[in-house]
Amino acid sequence: MQTKYILGDKHPTQNLYRVVAARAFSNVEKGDIGGYIANESCLAHGGNAWVYNTAWVYDDARVDENARVLGTAQIFGNAQIFGNAHVLGTAQIFGNAHVYGNAQVFGGARIKGNAHVYGNARVCGDAWLYDGARIHGNARAYGDVHITYPVQTVNLTGHVINFLHDRIIIGCESHAYAHWLENYAEIGAVNGYSPQDIESYGAFIKLFYRLNRSFITT
Hints:
This protein is of the alpha/beta class and 218 residues long. The chain has helices at 177-190, 195-212, and strands spanning 5-10, 17-21, 33-37, 50-51, 56-57, 62-63, 68-69, 74-75, 80-81, 86-87, 92-93, 98-99, 104-105, 110-111, 116-117, 122-123, 128-129, 134-135, 140-141, 146-147, 152-156, 159-163, 168-170, 173-175. The chain contains 2 helices and 24 strands.
């Protein structure tokens, strides 16, 4: 496999080295200086994977395929970033976490443990995913939400419902199940949803609650 980069200057305080592009690929030109990695096992020479800016990848973590790590993001532990995934901002991915597919993790988000983020999922803000959490499809997790359970997602008329163990997230609205069951019509009206959309959302909220109430925390 053709060498994609070489290791450049050492970080002034860490055992990390700048990556320097040895050839042009994707939006990277030969000679471009990227972020920091601990060694060549942290960044694949194949594909278009790259570590940009002042991002760090270290320990046994790896960035592979066409994934990108940007900003001051940190990937460490045994974390794996691959596919077309993007991790940026001040996000941290660690433990045995995986981010892949077309997923994006940004802001101050933290993904750890055995959590997986994939598909077209987006995790941002101060959201934390850990333990066995799974975020996938078109799911969104943002703000200060902490998720330890898998998320089930329903996509209706362009809007996504994210069912967690303790809350439902629809757009910018995040509430406990009991609150949604009592107020979904009012919430929908305030946010400009059509009567048909409100009826559909209400039906799914009630159905999901009936089918999964054994693990739901209201």
